[in-house]
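Sequence only, no structure available. Ideas?
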Amino acid sequence: MKFLRNARKAVADRLAERRAHRRLSDELAAFRTAAERSELDLMLGRHSAAETAEIDAILSRQDATRRYSESLHTAYRG
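Reply:
I predicted one. Tokens follow.
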């Protein structure tokens, strides 16, 4: 029984982590303009790289996705 309880807890913890990560990604996606991103960068600059690693990874992924989408849109209109 202890094994099942631990397995259920591990699954529940992982799902909670994924929801939190998704929520953070959604919140960070709201910072789209240059001014908003500059403000965010200033806030993040007050913390260590270790503290902001997850946020930096999310922002980098979002930037790459935006650049890719823009390049496809430009090429399509081309």
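The chain has a mean pLDDT of 93.
Hope that gets you unstuck.
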